[in-house]
Each structure stands twice: as structure tokens, then as C-alpha cells.
Write a structure and sequence with these properties.
There is one protein chain. The chain has a domain of 68 residues: lambda repressor-like DNA-binding domains (434 Repressor (Amino-terminal Domain), Orthogonal Bundle). It is an all-alpha fold. The N and C termini lie far apart (59 Å). It is built from five helices and no strands. Helix 2 packs across helix 3.
């Protein structure tokens, strides 16, 4: 009899989905991503991470460095996944637009 998973994540949710997407976009195998981590991780650890079957903050940090992204970017929801591949200037512009929109929404609520 299989026990119900104690982890709240599913395969289609971050961070596993984003790790899988980023790894595939670089055409790396799970073993290759694990080898690029410092210190290296076993490919089974990468597989468990991609399936959201358990991971630590240390594992996420090592994987994000190997993939060349910030730790928080692995937690982006699927609809924001393209954010990871934006150039830094575009990220700053999008962040500024969001800040301006939030400020306008607060101003509208105040009046």
C-alpha cells in the first residue's frame, strides 16, 4: 500500500517544474546538471527535485547556481516562468511597471 505524499508540491508546480524546464532548455541531462553543481549532486537528487519529492534549501541553492539563476526564480509560478530568461534590463523594466501599477492601484483605493 502506497502512503500519501507528505510534500505539498506536484510535478507541475515550482520549483521542480522550473528546474526541469531550465535543465531541458540547456539540453542537460539530470546527471549533467548534478555534476555542474558545486559540490556535485547525484542525478537521483535532481530527479527527486524535479518531481517535488523532497529537497533542501542547500540543494535548491546549488542547483540555481549551476543553472545561473537566483534561488527565488525557481519558485516562480508557471505563468511567470519566462521571467527567468529575460535579460536584466527587461527584468528591471517589468519590475518598474509592476511597481507603478501597484502605486496607481493604492492611489485609486485611497480616493
Amino acid at each position: 500500500m502506497k502512503r500519501k505524499s507528505v510534500y505539498p508540491y506536484t510535478v507541475k508546480e515550482p520549483p521542480g517544474h522550473n528546474v526541469h524546464m531550465l535543465r531541458n532548455s540547456r539540453e542537460w541531462s539530470q546527471r549533467e546538471l548534478g555534476d555542474r553543481c558545486s559540490p556535485p549532486l547525484d542525478h537521483t537528487t535532481i530527479r527527486r527535485l524535479e518531481r517535488n519529492l523532497g529537497f533542501t534549501q542547500d540543494t535548491l541553492s546549488r542547483v540555481s547556481k549551476a543553472l545561473g539563476v537566483q534561488d527565488y526564480e525557481l519558485w516562480l509560478p508557471a505563468e511567470l516562468a519566462p521571467w527567468i530568461s529575460l535579460p536584466p534590463a527587461a527584468k528591471r523594466r517589468v519590475a518598474e511597471y509592476i511597481r507603478i501599477e501597484a502605486q496607481a492601484a493604492r492611489h485609486t483605493q485611497e480616493t
